[in-house]
Design brief:
The protein is α/β, with parallel strands linked by helices. The protein has three domains: about 1-150, Copper Amine Oxidase, Chain A, domain 1 (2-Layer Sandwich), CATH 3.30.457.10; about 155-255 and about 425-460, 3-Layer(aba) Sandwich (Rossmann fold), CATH 3.40.50; about 260-420 and about 465-485, Rossmann fold (3-Layer(aba) Sandwich). α4 links the parallel β15 (about 155-160) and β16. The longest helix has 19 residues, at about 290-310. The protein is elongated and about 95 Å long. Keywords: Signal. Its main location: other.
Length: about 500
């Protein structure tokens, strides 16, 4: 946080001089001031000060009130105690006029020289104090009498997302950038492109750049633990985004939707559409390395299992699921056995190949009017294409999630039955809110915890909405989530 405060300090100084509102910057900043002169430069651009720096007892003092007011800090003056203070972010600094003892967050700090009030009425403080308190590098050139304050480039928030190959994550990138820009924080967003090794490389790059908060959507829930551990060791707050990082204590917060509720919504849709008995049921799941895949499946199994037991559905593509169909509650290992047979690995091509392989070995009697549990929209489209091309499939009901634009069009066109809207605007807002809380020394709101195998990770899950052709316009267009112009044939 220290470097970020320095950055704000310098940018605010420029703002006050030139008369504009300070905005948090992401790049490095160099400030130069000449003793006894009102001329200064910020990033080598000239500005004019209303109080020149001075030297007293061999120490350089700079205007404190000017910097504080320009920065927007809450400044206080106690005429009885003769103290001046400012509060900014996680720093609370109190100085006593004429005293070499200052208080920083309640801790005594000894100054090289006491602050003083000049005849002009301005309070000045030693520049070394500013440096040591907020992390700036200060250089003094005795020949030119120039003080140089330098701060290296830094970032507030680092974000690592799984891939650029899915519309969902591209949408998240745009929303993160817009939200952080509006909030006034600097950030960098990197993509792992389906590789845990690339993910680790991305996290290490962000650590090197000095991020204060890491928002990480893990490619592999367990493999990502090493990256979380590295970030924690560097003093960085770790927010697990959308997918839970497992088997580490180095996760501070989890931003998610209610993943079990997603699976329940998908399964309930299939149940509501089913009539009679012996309806062919095809199960597909996400990646076995993704904790969410287990939560989605857990929610779906809770709803489907009673209907499998009473004969409404007959599982057609998983011997493991058939072997366990009498169990209302599955252990993680048992779910893992089923998911291992029906995993799409969140990959469109794998999903289609698996569906085609299932259909190739299935008998005509195993097809007809089928019901398909697909884990998300991308895989749903691929699986739907495979089932739609099979001449023995008379009709199908297929689930999805994420409300991706291509899948919404599929729903409108009758090629995908439903999706679960997880309003990523809400998820992004929740992630940004948590990051800002950490940046400002607060604790994010918590309504529950999720067990990641090591700890209960604090979280505040967001609600989900079932969307099909009957409510697609109300849920996605009227709500402002998408524009009507992005689709054709809206009901």
């Amino acid at each position: 946080m220290k470097k970020a405060v320095v950055m704000l300090l310098v940018v605010a100084l420029l703002a006050a001089v030139l008369g504009f509102t300070p905005v948090r910057a992401a790049g490095g900043v160099v400030v130069q001031m000449t003793i006894g002169s009102t001329k200064a430069t910020i990033n080598f651009k000239a500005v004019v000060l209303d109080q020149p720096p001075i030297i007293e007892n061999g120490r350089t003092l700079v205007p404190f009130r000017f910097i504080g007011e320009a920065l927007g800090a809450k400044i206080g003056w106690d005429p009885v105690k003769k103290t001046v203070s400012y509060v900014l972010g996680d720093k609370n600094i109190v100085l006593t006029i004429g005293s070499i003892t200052a208080m920083v967050n309640g801790v005594e700090t000894t100054l090289d020289v006491a602050p003083k009030i000049l005849p002009t009425g301005r309070t000045v403080v030693p520049v070394r104090f500013i440096s040591e308190t907020i992390g700036a590098k200060v250089d003094w050139n005795s020949s030119t009498r120039i003080v140089t304050i330098t701060m290296a480039a830094t970032l507030d928030v680092g974000i690592v997302l799984p891939t650029k190959d899915e519309p969902r994550w591209i949408q998240d990138e745009t929303r993160f950038n817009d939200a952080l820009k509006t909030a006034g924080y600097s950030a960098e967003i990197l993509f792992s492109q389906g590789s845990s090794a690339k993910e680790k490389e991305n996290v290490e790059a962000l650590i090197t750049k000095g991020v204060k908060v890491l928002i990480l959507c893990p490619q592999d829930a367990t493999a990502a633990a090493a990256s979380a551990d590295e970030a924690r060791a560097a003093g960085i707050k770790v927010i697990s985004y959308d997918r839970l990082i497992r088997d580490t204590k180095a996760v501070d917060y989890y931003v998610t939707f209610d993943s079990i509720a997603v699976g329940k919504a998908q399964a309930q849709y299939l149940v509501d559409k089913a009539t009679g008995t012996k309806n062919p049921l095809y199960l597909y799941a996400g990646a076995a390395t993704d904790n969410n895949a287990f939560l989605f499946f857990e929610g779906a199994w809770d709803v489907l299992q009673p209907k499998i037991a009473d004969g409404t559905f007959v599982i057609k593509n998983s011997s493991q699921a058939v072997a366990l169909q009498g169990k209302a509650t599955l252990t993680r290992d048992e779910m893992g056995k089923i998911i291992g047979q029906v995993t799409t690995n969140w990959d469109f091509t794998i999903a289609k190949n698996l569906a085609e392989a299932n259909l190739t070995i299935a008998k005509a009697a195993d097809k007809g009017n089928v019901f398909i549990l697909a884990p998300n929209d991308g895989t749903a489209r691929s699986i739907a294409d495979a089932f739609g091309d099979d001449k023995d499939v008379k009709s199908y009901v297929i689930t999805g999630q994420d409300a991706e634009i291509p899948s919404v069009q599929y729903i409108i066109d009758g090629k995908q039955s439903m999706t679960v809207l997880k309003d990523v605007r809400t998820l992004v807002r929740d992630a940004i809110a948590a990051a800002v809380d950490y940046l400002t020394g607060k604790t994010p709101e918590q309504t529950t915890t999720y067990n990641n195998g090591k700890i209960g990770v604090p979280a505040k899950p967001s609600v989900v909405v079932t969307v099909d052709k009957s409510n697609v316009k109300a849920a996605l267009i009227d709500s402002g989530y998408y524009k009507a112009s992005e689709f054709t044939g809206l009901p």
